[in-house]
UniProtKB/TrEMBL annotation:
Keyword annotations of the record: Hydrolase, Metal-binding, Zinc
Family note: Belongs to the cytidine and deoxycytidylate deaminase family.
Cofactor: Zn(2+)
Annotated EC: 3.5.4.5
Keyword Hydrolase: yes
Name assigned to this protein: Cytidine deaminase
Keyword Heme part of the UniProt annotation: no
Reaction(s) catalysed by this chain's protein: 2'-deoxycytidine + H2O + H(+) = 2'-deoxyuridine + NH4(+); cytidine + H2O + H(+) = uridine + NH4(+)
A GO-annotated cellular component: cytosol
Gene Ontology biological-process annotations: nucleobase-containing small molecule metabolic process; pyrimidine-containing compound metabolic process
Gene3D superfamilies: Cytidine Deaminase, domain 2
Length: 140
């Protein structure tokens, strides 16, 4: 257990790897899964959903955030992302758009765990991945 929350990192990583199996990625063949923990202790999962009109595809992180919001969650407490293939040993870090979408519901110290399907892991904070970010408070 890496913090005081009863949901462990490995539970979140397992949920993200499981979500990868539901990816709809016939164009890139690059499956990604995300699992996030909200302020109610609930886990929300998502996978990437591609489209024949390529730019309309959505990322796993975006899909998990939509699930959280639709379930009434408002805060991302921790998020795990799993993606890639055995062939490539570069971890699948969230794209720029998803970093900003995570930013909307997370704090600078929110942990983002990146896992490869072969068991490699790295932990970042949101501030590591999106320093000096723009958020809701900028609009006040
Ligand atoms: O963090 C990431 C990076 C990429 N993708 C998806 C988008 C596209 O469907 C595929 C290849 O870029 O992976 C995600 O879902 N999350
Ligand atoms: Zn993305």
């Amino acid at each position: 257990m890496s913090d005081h929350n009863p949901i462990s990192d490995s539970t979140l990583i397992t949920a993200a790897i499981d979500a990868m199996t539901r990816a709809y990625a016939p164009y890139s063949n690059f499956a990604v899964g995300a699992a996030l923990l909200d302020e109610n202790g609930q886990i929300h999962c998502g996978a990437n959903v591609e489209n024949a009109a390529y730019p309309n595809g959505i990322c796993a992180e975006t899909s998990a955030i939509a699930m959280m919001v639709n379930a009434g969650g408002t805060q991302i407490k921790r998020i795990a992302v799993a993606g890639g293939t055995d062939a490539v040993d570069i971890l699948c870090t969230p794209c720029g758009g998803c970093r900003q979408r995570i930013r909307e519901f997370a704090a600078p110290d929110t942990v983002i765990i990146i896992a490869s399907p072969v068991g490699e892991q790295q932990r970042f904070t949101l501030a590591d991945l999106l320093p000096h970010s723009f958020g809701p408070a900028n609009l006040n």
